[in-house]
Design brief:
A 7-stranded parallel sheet has the order 3-4-2-5-6-1-7, with helices on both faces. A 6-stranded mixed sheet has the order 8-13-12-9-11-10. The chain is built from 13 helices and 13 strands. The chain is globular and about 65 Å long. By secondary structure, it is an alpha/beta fold. Helix 2 packs across helix 3. The chain binds adenosine-5'-triphosphate (ATP). The site of adenosine-5'-triphosphate has 14 residues, from loops. Adenosine-5'-triphosphate binds next to loops. It is found in: Nucleus.
Length: 336
């Protein structure tokens, strides 16, 4: 059976079920460089390592990923991560790989050669992979279900983590029919813990997520949504001489901070991007009118800090950065 990843520096691998908080903290430090767990992370990690289902509510950017990444490092076998966004999967996988953690994703954007390599590894009986990111659509296919069953029968399925778990609820704003299809996982793998993660706090949605996934007596963790590093400021457009100049002055006075500006219309994105460029601020537009190659380049350039500002419609999603929204009629809002 595949062993847990050894700690960097040559120490022996930690065995499943015997990790103290100190040992878990040392894994956090060695792989991610952080000295302590945040909020409810440790409780979530301990819950799934003890074999319990867990429902974890944490704000965006609160560190939900760590709740399954640490178990992946100390547990035997592969952690399956179900995520709705291919861009996020790609991003997480490349960040994990850069830390020496064996992780992969399976999606339509992967080359056939890569997919084959991943499947060979999974079929090997001794996979090197620790984390496998997949879409809910793939999990629902009979071929992939069979693969998971094989992995499970060999004792190599360590945990199922469901990111953005609120997408399973028809009560949520983000319902995705494909998420409904993963509700059979509990029946299929009754002994494998399921970790449901979300930042959506509505109680009706939480209850629906827990029952739709058939979580068994789950540990329910709710982190504080009080984020002292976040502030809101509202400026009234009518009181400003020139909204675009106000935005560019704000960006200049904030230093080179990574930012997104949301606009309602594509044309406004293009317009404002041009204005910012004229002001010497590196920026790019992101909206559904651009082809996927251009959008990927914009995202990559922004993630790697080659571009400071993305001016986007909601097609961009909402990462954890300074956000200026210019999409309300009489005001624009700043969130940092
Ligand atoms: N214990 C920790 N100490 C310091 N930083 C941490 C810790 N845990 C996670 N982080 C960092 O916090 C950031 C946000 O983490 P992560 O992306 O997991 O958040 P998230 O809750 O999944 O957000 P989202 O809802 O956007 O998916 C990452 O840069 C991550 O490395």
């Amino acid at each position: 059976m595949k062993k847990a990843l050894p700690l960097k520096g040559g120490s022996a691998g930690l065995r499943h079920g015997t990790k103290s908080p100190k040992e878990l903290e040392s894994v956090l430090k060695q792989y991610f460089g952080y000295s302590e767990f945040r909020g409810r992370q440790l409780e979530a990690i301990e819950a799934v390592l003890s074999g319990r289902d867990c429902f974890c509510l944490m704000p965006t950017g609160g560190g939900k990923s760590m709740c399954y990444q640490i178990p992946a490092l100390v547990k035997t076998g592969v952690v399956l991560v179900i995520s709705p966004l291919i861009a996020l999967m790609e991003n997480q996988v490349s960040s994990l790989k850069s830390k020496g953690i064996p992780a992969e994703f399976l999606s339509s954007t992967q080359t056939t050669a890569n997919k084959n390599k991943i499947h060979e590894d999974l079929d090997s009986g001794n996979p090197s992979l620790k984390l496998l990111y997949v879409t809910p659509e793939l999990v629902a296919t009979s071929g992939f279900k069979a693969k998971l069953t094989k992995l499970h029968n060999r004792g190599l399925l360590g945990l199922v983590a469901i990111d953005e778990a609120h997408c399973i609820s028809t009560w949520g704003h983000d319902f995705r029919p494909s998420y409904r299809k993963i509700s059979s996982l509990r029946k299929q793998f009754p002994d494998i813990p399921i970790l449901a993660l979300t930042a959506t706090a509505v109680p009706k949605v939480q209850k629906d997520v827990i029952s739709s996934l058939s979580l068994q007596n789950p540990v329910i963790l709710k982190a504080s949504f009080n984020r002292p590093n976040i502030f809101y400021e509202v400026r009234y457009k009518d009181l400003l001489d020139d909204v675009y100049s106000d935005i560019s002055n704000l960006l200049k006075s904030s230093g080179n901070v990574c930012s997104i500006i949301y606009c309602l219309e594509r044309a406004a994105c293009d317009d404002l991007t041009m204005h910012l460029a004229q002001q010497g601020i590196s920026s790019a537009a992101y909206h559904a009118g651009l082809n996927s190659k251009v959008r990927t380049t914009v995202l990559d350039d922004w993630l790697s800090s080659r571009t400071q500002v993305v001016v986007a419609t909601v097609a961009f999603g909402s990462p954890d950065v300074l956000v200026v929204t210019n999409s309300l009629p009489g005001v624009f809002c700043i969130m940092g």
